[in-house]
Backbone:
């Protein structure tokens, strides 16, 4: 296959591993900076140009689109789909998962475990919003945040009111969620490929921190997940319509709850913790499922 890999940094571990795995299997990979792609949108012959070159004859595209360029990145991915190029993850599914509020509403519709979550627009509603999610401590999240950025733990009602008022005063959209104390600053990253969890790791926050993201100093280790956690992860991936994703789960007293579904999961932490060739599994999935023009949208509508 001739594969396009949309990544803004060719030196990232995940990008390098995917290239290595594909080339080891005899495929050709070209790394494309998604922001340098530009499109000719036409009914007869839609095309993508890159630094003056017309990109043609690709069989598949692997999107590694950063959250900060989701809008433009999904537009480029959608253009590849219009050209009949098979996407590892479809543009609609990537956009669906990146919209945190929309993703939670879709997961809720399917009855998938979630932390109690509130969303409001006016400061007048803050007190009721706090009570709605079970009071303090609670977690406040910016809708646009990634890797733990824009996530605040408010331990008192006064602190919660102050943070929420500040965010709303800046016209920022925020989610307010119950704090799952029993998780102990740890979450589980399940790596889903197709309809299976192929690897799972526990991410433990460093001392004095409640965010377990590895980018914030969290430590990763191998973990054995329960059948309920496995089912939750695969159902969440299916609801988003993602072929490959990371599903972040917390262990709560009322069962596993999904915190996020990541359409471009990093490979370094989970390959190191599990000693599994995740990149190879991704390319194997492409080999088994690639078909020219096969770009139909999957997952929930909405």
Residues:
């Amino acid at each position: 296959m001739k594969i396009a890999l949309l990544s803004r940094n060719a030196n990232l571990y995940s990008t390098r591993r995917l290239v290595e795995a594909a080339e080891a299997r005899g495929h050709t990979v070209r790394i494309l900076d998604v922001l340098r792609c530009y499109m000719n949108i036409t009914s007869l012959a839609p095309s993508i140009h890159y630094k003056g070159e017309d990109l043609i004859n690709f069989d598949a595209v692997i999107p590694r689109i950063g959250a900060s360029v989701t809008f433009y990145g999904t537009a480029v991915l959608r253009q590849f789909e219009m050209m009949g190029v098979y996407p590892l993850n479809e543009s609609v599914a990537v956009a669906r998962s990146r919209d945190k509020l929309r993703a939670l509403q879709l997961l809720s519709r399917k009855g998938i475990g979630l932390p109690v979550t509130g969303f409001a627009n006016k400061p007048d509603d803050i007190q009721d919003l706090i009570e709605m999610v079970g009071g303090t401590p609670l977690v406040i999240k910016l809708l646009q945040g990634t890797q733990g950025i824009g996530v605040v733990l408010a331990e008192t009602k006064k602190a919660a009111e102050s943070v929420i008022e500040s965010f709303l005063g800046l016209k920022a959209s925020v989610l307010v969620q119950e704090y799952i104390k029993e998780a102990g600053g740890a979450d589980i990253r399940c790596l889903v490929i197709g309809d299976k969890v192929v690897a799972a790791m526990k991410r433990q926050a460093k001392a004095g921190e409640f965010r377990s993201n590895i980018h914030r100093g969290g430590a990763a280790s191998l973990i054995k997940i329960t059948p309920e956690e496995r089912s939750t992860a695969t159902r969440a991936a299916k609801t988003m319509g993602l072929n490959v994703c990371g599903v972040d789960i917390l262990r709560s007293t009322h069962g596993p709850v999904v915190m996020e579904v990541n359409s471009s999961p990093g490979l370094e932490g989970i390959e190191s913790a599990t000693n599994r060739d995740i990149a190879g599994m991704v390319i194997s999935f492409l080999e088994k499922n690639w078909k020219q023009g096969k770009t139909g949208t999957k997952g929930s509508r909405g």
Residues 227-240 form the longest helix (14 residues). DSSP finds nine helices and 16 strands in the chain. The longest strand covers residues 196-204.
